[in-house]
Structures are given as C-alpha cells and as structure tokens.
Design a protein that fits this description.
192 residues, alpha/beta, Rossmann fold, seven-stranded mixed beta sheet, two-stranded antiparallel ribbon, 6 helices, 9 strands, 29% helix, globular
Length: 192
C-alpha cells in the first residue's frame, strides 16, 4: 500500500479498469456463492466498481457489503447497487464493518499487496468469518512477481505452498483449487 495512494494505483486508472473488466471468473464466483446458506451475508474485498461479482451475489440472494480504497470505483458501485453497504478504505487496515460474514471473496486483490500484508489479510478474513464461513481468493499458484497490467505496479504471488500454509494457519480447511476459463487460479476454503 502506498502512503499516498491507498488504492494501490487503481484510483488513477479507474475509468480504464472499468472498461477492461470482463465476465471471466463469473462462473467461479457463481459456483462458490451457490455453496453459501440462503440469505448469506458476503463481503467483497477490493470490489472495484462491483462488476461482475456484486450482481452475481445479489442474484443468488446474498446480502452484500463491499470494501475498496478507490473512491471513483466505489462511487460507480454505489450508483449501480445502492443496497450494497460500502466502505472506502484499504482492506489492509479495515475492520470489515466490525462484524462476521458467511462468505468473503477477494478476486484480483491479494497479489497487489506486499507479502506480509497478504498473510495478515488471510488471518483477518478468517477472523471476520462465522464458523464454517467460506473464502474465495484469486492468486496464482506459482510464486513470482510481475507488473500489473492496469496500474503498472509490482504484483507478487506467494505461491501455492505458502498460500495453503497461510490458509491452514488461519483456521481454514477443505482448501480447493479452481480455475476460471481465462486461466486464473482461485483458492476456495472453508473455516473450521
């Protein structure tokens, strides 16, 4: 997280991000949401402008809260989905509305954070989930770094072994790997 830009560069490229966002990954989110209880309360971390995940969650009957640090993206989300509770803040310092959720998703987010912040975020997510709550997070299985296509900032993957270890340490079990049609990798985990 930059001290000057808590959105990790996304506020400055909000319009470009909105134009470039695709439906890839929608089926993965829909399948994950189908495992949640009826009327589940779900938190979308790094929600951006809401699409495509927020309408999927609302369509399956979830109550949705959302956090993003880019005011421009969150403004679009609030215009399109006024029933969604929102907070404009970095996920790294959020208290997640001070409540527990049935499910939390973080798609296209965790690898934008520094290594230590990624591990802390996994623990914070676990702390904010109800027992048997579900977490869906996208992250490459291979460790490494690359330049984010939109912000041109450095992104970092901790790799499969470290992500799974961090999930287990945080109290998750039944950790599954999933891929979307675009080849992105996801961890789907359930809290004990």
């Amino acid at each position: 997280m930059s001290a000057h830009d808590p959105s990790n560069g996304y506020e400055g490229v909000a319009e470009q991000f909105i134009r470039a966002r695709s439906e890839i990954g929608s089926a993965t989110v829909r399948d994950w949401a189908a495992q949640l209880p009826n009327g589940a309360h779900v938190l979308d971390l790094g929600c951006g402008h809401g699409d495509p995940n927020i309408p999927i969650l609302l369509d399956v009957g979830c109550r949705v809260s959302a956090i993003d640090a880019a005011p421009s993206l969150l403004s679009v989300l609030k215009d399109h989905y006024p029933a969604v509770e929102t907070a404009c803040e970095p996920v790294e310092t959020s208290d997640f509305f001070g409540r527990k959720f049935d499910g939390i998703l973080a798609v296209g987010l965790i690898f934008l954070l520094p290594r230590d912040a990624q591990s802390r975020l996994i623990q914070n997510v676990s702390d904010a989930l109800k027992p048997s709550g579900r977490f869906l997070v996208s992250a490459p299985q291979r460790s490494g770094s690359w330049e984010d296509l939109v912000t041109k900032r450095r992104s970092v993957s901790l790799g499969d072994e470290i992500y799974k270890t961090n999930l287990l340490k945080a109290g998750f079990e039944a950790i599954e790997s999933r891929w979307d049609r675009g080849g992105s990798h996801y961890y789907s985990a359930q809290k004990a």
